[in-house]
Each structure stands twice: as structure tokens, then as C-alpha cells.
Write a structure and sequence with these properties.
The radius of gyration is 21 Å and the shape is globular. The N and C termini lie far apart (56 Å). It is built from 7 helices and 24 strands. Helix 1 runs parallel beside helix 6. It has 2 domains: 176 residues, FAD/NAD(P)-binding domain; 140 residues, FAD/NAD(P)-binding domain. Helix 1 links the parallel strand 1 and strand 2. The chain has 415 residues and is an alpha/beta fold.
């Protein structure tokens, strides 16, 4: 009997899952269908480079359908809702898809309308975001004519896609204005809801020190309540941050259809998910990958890649009646661009914070240390993404579990 596998979302998670499943199952064993509302697959790490003229949107957007292996059906349609009891997905075009296994891979969406004044008259005039191709391109045009004043990079609230990207923007802005010879005329401020530059202490100290060394002000525990005309962010605690140009990372939520699907999502439309098996808590035949899940891991492409191996194996286990494997350990790694042709690399999981050392072994890329090698690694990753990660290939030396070899791990305290 042919199993019906429906994958909602044709981004990183949906594409690599579909391709891995197609390699696992022949057409007579599984019918695999991917649904997405458009046919634009965006290489999201590339959006960071667009405002600085280091990439163009045409270079980071490709058709979704072309990234899928032969024998995978692609349907371009909005999703109306999931009927968990019936085991069906109702599409916006009126089509109903029955499934034996459902994979939710619809990521996270921006919800700027949730912040008062953000979409007001200053939007795309003096207030921008680089989290969309259109926003990144418009911000690039604004930066080109910005020659003095206060640039504020503001994260409204967590969680967000690629949590280090706003930090990277600060570092690249420092480099950008230095190269233009006007760094002394531009004040850069990073306003974050966190109590430091990052969520983990060792990395937060390292990154905070780098911000200070570059003369970038950091405003912590700032929860943006309103964007006020005239160039002002106001926090819920009454504090204010003035700006001449603001780069805002809006609130994020899950896909809207999740909220229309009883029992599927939480109050933010993310899907409650077992953090180790990636099985949803809504039904045993629903699995979740990437930013759509509410697991306590970073919403980053590397996490999605590392989740893929566990998720696909557990789909197989579910279909054969085997116990699921609690195989995902929260593994994440991120190249953090720091400007001047250098980058820093962090690697961590649920239990281990980013620490110094090397990745993925004692002879490898330096961790928590700026280097040109890490910068080249970040640039190379775009090719790896299109030709290795999305096709669902196993990347040599890059297993799903976090490696400990090469890391300077703290010695556990004795009782």
C-alpha cells in the first residue's frame, strides 16, 4: 500500500525532508506532496548581505519546484486549515489532501502589525527590515544615502529566525561605514529584549565585548512597544531610543493556517513538538521541522538540517510501527559575520552552550574566534545549501548530533 505523505512548506525543512523521503521510498511505496503558497525559495542567510551590496536578491531566490527531486508533487496554493481528526489538509484553492503522515514545515512569518506604529508612515522610509527580499533591497537604497546620524538595530521580541542576524547586521554596518570613511559620523545602537548580546553566557560575553570594541552601543532588556513618528522607539518600561534610521526585526509567529487548525498550534501559531523525536503533540502522524516547531532550539537553517535526519527516520519508524528515536539533541551552529572579511563560528545544542575550540574536530574551524576561514566558510555555505543540504545529501563530517571533539568544554563541578 502506498503511503500518502504531505509536507506543508517548501522552504529549507520541507524541501530537504521531501528529498530525503524520496531517496528512502520509491514511487510505489510513498506518494510525496509538497504544498506552498508561492514558488519563491529564498536563501535566507543571503538577505543579510543585500543591504550592503554584497549580494543581490536575484542571486538568492530560486523556484521551489526545481529544488525537489523527480517524483515529488508540488502544489502552489495557500493552506486553509488542517483537520487532524479526518487526516486531511484543506487548501485555499478548495482541494482537500488526505494524508497518512503530515510534515509541518511552514516556518515562521513576520507579524509587524503586532507592534504599534511599525507599519506607520516611517515604514520603508526611515524604518526598514532586512528579513524579506523587498525589505533588504529597500534598506540597501536607504543605507547608500545615509551619511550621518543614529542607526538603531532593534529586535522587537524573541523568537526570531536566525537569532544572530541582527548582531551580524551591526558588525557589517560598522565595516560598511568604515569603508565609506564616515564611521565617526554614524552612531550604531543595538536594542535587544535579551539581557546581553546572546542567550548563552560565554558567547554573550564574547559578542558583547566585540560590540564594545567597535563602538556599538547595546541597549538590553528593551521590549519595543511602539514606533513613534519622528524617530523614536518606546519600550513597555517607558525607556526611549531615538533613531534617524531604524532596522527592525518584527515579531514572529507561525503560519496563519495553524491558528485555523484546532489542536495543532499554540498561541503564537507555532506547533508544540517533542524536542527530541520531532513528533507533534497534536497527533502521532504529524511531524514538525524547522522554524514551525516550538522546540527550544534556534530558528536557524542549521537546526533544520540537523533535524532532518531524525525526522525522516522517525517518519519511517512511524509507518512501520517501530518506536520513535529521540535522536535530535538541539544541535545548532552559526557563522556570525563580524565584518572586514572575518566571521565567528558557534556550535551548541540543548545542553551545551557555545564554547571555544574547533569544529567539527580538533582540526577544524575555530569556535568563538574571528577568522577569515570562518568568513570563507559562510560564503561557501550558499553552494552547500543549494547542492548538498536541500537535495537531502549527507554532508561528510556534519552529523546531526553535536560533536564534542575539539571543544573546550567546562569541567563538571564535583559534589
Amino acid at each position: 500500500m502506498t503511503s500518502r505523505i504531505v509536507i506543508l512548506g517548501g522552504g529549507t525543512g520541507g524541501t530537504l525532508t521531501a528529498n530525503r523521503l524520496r531517496r528512502l521510498y520509491g514511487a510505489d511505496e510513498a506518494a510525496i506532496t509538497v504544498v506552498d503558497q508561492d514558488d519563491r525559495h529564498v536563501y535566507q542567510p543571503g538577505l543579510l548581505f543585500v543591504p550592503f551590496g554584497l549580494a543581490h536578491t536575484d542571486d538568492i531566490v530560486r523556484p521551489r519546484a526545481r529544488q525537489l527531486h523527480e517524483g515529488i508533487e508540488f502544489i502552489e496554493s495557500a493552506i486553509d486549515h488542517v483537520d487532524i481528526e479526518a487526516g486531511e489538509v484543506r487548501l485555499g484553492n478548495g482541494v482537500t489532501l488526505g494524508y497518512d503522515v503530515l510534515v509541518v514545515a511552514t516556518g515562521a512569518r513576520l507579524v509587524p502589525e503586532e507592534t504599534e506604529g511599525l507599519l506607520g508612515p516611517a515604514w520603508m522610509d526611515s524604518v526598514f527590515t532586512f528579513y524579506t527580499p523587498e525589505g533588504a533591497a529597500a534598506l540597501g537604497a536607504a543605507l547608500a544615502t545615509f551619511d550621518r546620524g543614529r542607526l538603531v538595530v532593534n529586535v522587537v521580541d524573541m523568537p526570531i529566525k536566525c537569532p544572530v542576524a541582527p548582531l551580524e547586521f551591526c558588525f557589517l554596518a560598522d565595516w560598511y561605514f568604515t569603508e565609506r570613511g564616515i564611521r565617526d559620523r554614524v552612531q550604531i545602537t543595538y536594542a535587544t529584549p535579551l539581557d546581553g548580546a546572546f542567550t548563552k553566557p560565554i558567547a554573550a560575553a564574547q559578542l558583547g565585548g566585540m560590540l564594545n570594541a567597535r563602538g556599538i552601543e547595546i541597549v538590553t532588556e528593551f521590549n519595543t512597544g511602539e514606533v513613534v513618528p519622528g524617530g523614536r522607539l518606546t519600550g513597555y518600561d517607558g525607556r526611549e531610543v531615538q533613531f534617524d534610521l531604524a532596522v527592525v526585526i518584527p515579531l514572529h509567529g507561525g503560519a496563519t493556517y495553524v491558528g485555523r487548525s484546532p489542536g495543532l498550534g499554540d498561541e503564537l501559531d507555532f506547533v508544540p513538538t517533542d524536542e527530541h523525536t520531532l513528533q507533534s503533540k497534536a497527533a502521532s502522524n504529524i511531524f514538525v521541522i524547522g522554524d514551525a516547531a516550538n522546540v527550544p532550539a534556534s530558528k536557524a537553517g542549521s537546526v533544520t538540517h540537523f533535524e532532518g535526519e531524525t525526522l525522516v527516520d522517525n517518519v519511517r519508524r512511524f509507518l512501520t510501527g517501530e518506536p520513535l528515536e529521540a535522536g535530535f539533541d538541539g544541535h545548532a551552529n552559526c557563522f556570525i559575520e563580524t565584518g572586514f572579511h572575518k566571521a565567528l563560528l558557534i556550535d551548541f545544542n540543548y545542553d551545551t552552550e557555545p564554547v571555544p575550540g574547533h569544529y567539527p574536530s580538533p582540526v577544524g574551524l575555530p569556535l568563538l574566534k574571528e577568522s577569515r576561514l570562518n568568513h570563507l566558510g559562510k560564503l561557501l555555505f550558499q553552494s552547500v545549501y543549494w547542492h548538498g543540504l536541500l537535495p537531502g545529501r549527507d554532508l561528510p563530517g556534519l552529523g546531526s548530533n553535536m560533536p564534542t571533539a575539539g571543544k573546550h568544554l567546562p569541567v563538571p563541578e564535583k559534589d
